[in-house]
Design a protein that fits this description.
Elements (H helix, E strand, L loop, with lengths): L1 H4 L2 H29 L25 H36 L2 H16 L2 H12 L3 H27 L3 H8 L4 H37 L11 H8 L11 H25 L3 E2 L2 E2 L16 E12 L3 E12 L3 E5 L6 H8 L8 E3 L2 E4 L2 E2 L5 H11 E4 L3 H4 L6 H12 L4 H14 L5 H4 L9 H12 L6 E5 L7 H18 L2 E6 L2 H7 L2 E6 L2 E7 L9 H8 L49 E2 L5 E2 L5
Parallel strand pairs: 5-11, 5-12, 9-10, 10-11
Antiparallel strand pairs: 1-2, 3-4, 3-6, 3-7, 7-8, 12-13, 13-15, 14-15
Helix pairs in contact: 2-3, 2-10, 3-4, 3-6, 3-8, 4-6, 5-6, 6-8, 7-8, 8-9, 8-10, 9-10, 14-15, 14-17, 15-17, 17-18
């Protein structure tokens, strides 16, 4: 809460709401008599010394009535919000409890209600249930419910396929218990945050209903009712509408600001265990390596809660060279690539002693300069080309965008370059492909198109993050051949990420092996059979070849890799290593063991 209130908008909203709550508590006992005192001598008067904002048609003080009306206005708003929230959550969770056909009917009904104008729905409900405070509260609650139902259904569907939900269903846990024990606790936070904004909407809606004569009825009064009564005199004494109008505006603003700040704070960089903190390593004193397109020293990526998926990784990629980054899933390979490309998802924090791209320190550039350098010198090829290509745009339009934005090329020049780049990656009939949509291409063609997109500029570094995982063996070999040709032709450097050490050994010049966020061995690809780290040797041994005895089970690595938040101070591989000794309780550093060969192991 202290961090939240440091935001000016959140502080302003909190102060407004606190003042309203205070007025709701003290308003009736302090100003109740003045609000109800009739004065026939001062009927419908404007502002004066005795009545700062004027009087109503019975001579009652409008400022006092506005202050007293705070309690009823806030009370009805809270009640309407609770009704809308509870009804919406119930509607949103029904599809998870009902049979599939009935659940679809509920979802369709919610969709129809969401499309219906909220105020009209509230007015219709109020007419059916009866005019007055009760009808207005039920009407506003009914208007809020579809929004909460849609949000609840969306959040429920987003976690319905989680492993723990599947496990509960396999154990025959009743649907109602799955909902209350596993689903609702995990979606409670966004629902609570949305409630603050819904409170503001309820207050404005109730005031509108009372202003239209469908809400609170005389002799009761809320802010909307006061506006209704004063509206007939607004042209004679404009001051009579100031108090209730300002009260409605400030209350609505306060709830909206507070709800918006809550939402931003929940999505911000500070998690339940505080913000991710990565001490910046001291700047590297070693001279930059000549001919290196990428040089990274002591790269670390951290997330709130002590999650550190990348730990002091150092890499060098030279011109015309492909460096393979290999390891099991979860070892930190993709996060390392994201940190180099400055696309680590929020709220991750990246720190490094030095990150040089084409000899330029990325940390020494402004955001605009860094964006320009990365856009022109770095190309990234991701695992799934379907997510890299917009299905609604033609392939040519997506390729030309790179050239027009970063190089200032004309549309004709960019289109000609797109055809040439598609031809370079061996796509047949490139002039026809630029007019096609991604779904009209095969998986291999889409991956080649993504490589061509990266080549639309003049990249000096290509990062390929498992670009062949979803492809069959034949197409995989063709794409790897294209990548090798591109590196040889352009003399760019490439960082090739994979979990397949056989592919890495065939394609790459050097190999860096990652485990639990660290590089544990680096060596030439030709020397993989002479690897010294137990983890690297275990990866190689797990690959079957033509001499593998099919009567025996496939070789595996026992145990599992520790999660990024559970890595201890010793060797992370010790629990799975047959060579582990007492010295492994201390983490070994990456140490040179020959020309181009470094190992982080006490026993290697």
């Amino acid at each position: 809460m202290r961090r939240l209130l440091r935001h000016p908008a959140g502080l302003f909203g909190a102060v407004l709401i606190a003042l309203l709550v205070l007025l709701a508590l003290v308003g009736p006992p302090v100003w109740g008599d003045a609000a109800g005192r009739i004065d026939a001598q001062r009927i419908s008067q404007g502002a004066s010394a005795s009545h700062l904002l004027g009087t109503d048609a019975l001579g009652r003080d409008l400022l006092a009535r506005t202050l007293v009306a705070t309690r009823l206005t806030l009370g009805l708003s809270v009640l309407a919000t609770l009704i809308g929230t509870l009804a919406g959550v119930l509607l949103g969770t029904l599809p998870s409890l009902l049979p599939r056909a009935a659940g679809r009917l509920v979802v369709a009904a919610v969709d129809i209600l969401v499309a219906f104008p909220a105020l009209l729905l509230a007015m219709f409900t109020a007419v059916v249930t009866g005019l007055g405070a009760k009808g207005a509260v039920l009407g506003i609650g009914a208007a809020l419910a579809p929004t909460f139902a849609r949000l609840t259904h969306t959040l429920t569907a987003s976690i319905a396929r989680a492993d723990y939900i599947a496990a509960a269903r396999m154990l025959r846990v009743p649907r109602r218990r799955v909902l209350t024990r596993h689903i609702l606790p995990n979606i409670a936070e966004p629902l609570i945050l949305n409630t603050a904004q819904a409170m503001g909407s309820a207050l404005l809606g109730l005031s509108a209903m009372s202003f239209l004569g469908m809400g609170v009825q005389a002799p009761g009064y809320d802010w909307g009712r006061l506006l209704n009564e004063a509206f007939g005199h607004v042209y004679v004494t404009p001051s009579v509408v100031i108090a209730p109008a300002v009260a409605v505006a400030l209350a609505g603003l306060g709830f909206m600001l507070l709800g918006d700040t809550f939402a931003k704070a929940a999505a911000g960089p500070e998690g339940p265990s505080g913000p991710a903190v990565v001490p910046r390593p001291p700047a590297s004193e070693a001279a930059p390596e000549t001919g290196a397109v990428l040089e990274v020293r002591d790269l670390t990526v951290a997330f709130p809660g002590g999650i550190t998926p990348v730990r002091q990784v150092s890499l060098t990629v030279r011109e015309g060279e492909i460096l393979g980054l290999v390891g099991e899933s979860g070892s930190g390979k993709s996060m390392t690539a994201a940190a180099i490309g400055r696309i680590v998802p929020h709220p991750g924090v990246v720190a490094a002693a030095r990150t040089l791209l084409c000899g330029t320190d990325l940390d020494g550039l402004t955001a605009a300069q860094r964006h320009k350098l990365l856009g022109s010198s770095l190309a990234m090829v991701f695992q799934d080309p379907t997510s890299s290509l917009n299905p609604a745009l033609r392939v040519g339009g997506q390729l030309t965008e790179v050239a027009t934005l970063h190089d200032g090329a004309t549309t004709a020049q960019a289109r000609a370059r797109a055809v040439e780049r598609l031809d370079r990656v061996h796509i047949r009939r490139p002039a026809q492909v630029v007019r096609q949509y991604p779904h009209e291409l095969s998986g291999g063609m889409r991956q080649r198109a993504v490589i061509a997109m990266g080549l639309m500029g003049t990249p000096r570094l290509i990062i390929a993050d498992e670009p062949t995982t979803a492809l069959d063996v034949t197409v995989q070999r063709e794409v790897l051949k294209v990548l090798r040709e591109v590196v040889d032709d352009t003399r760019a450097g490439a960082l090739f990420i994979s979990h397949d050490i056989a592919v890495v050994g065939e394609l790459c010049d050097r190999v860096a092996v990652m485990y639990a966020g660290r590089v544990v061995e680096e060596l030439p690809a030709a020397a993989l059979r002479h690897a010294r780290h137990p983890y690297t040797r275990a990866l190689i041994a797990s690959l079957p070849d033509m001499d593998t005895d099919r009567a025996l089970p496939l070789a595996t690595i026992p145990g599992r890799q520790p999660s990024p938040g559970d890595v201890g101070s010793g060797c992370a591989f010790a629990d799975r290593c047959a060579l582990a000794t007492r010295s492994c309780s201390l983490r070994p550093e990456l140490t040179a063991r020959g020309a181009g060969h470094a190992v982080a192991c006490w026993e290697a």
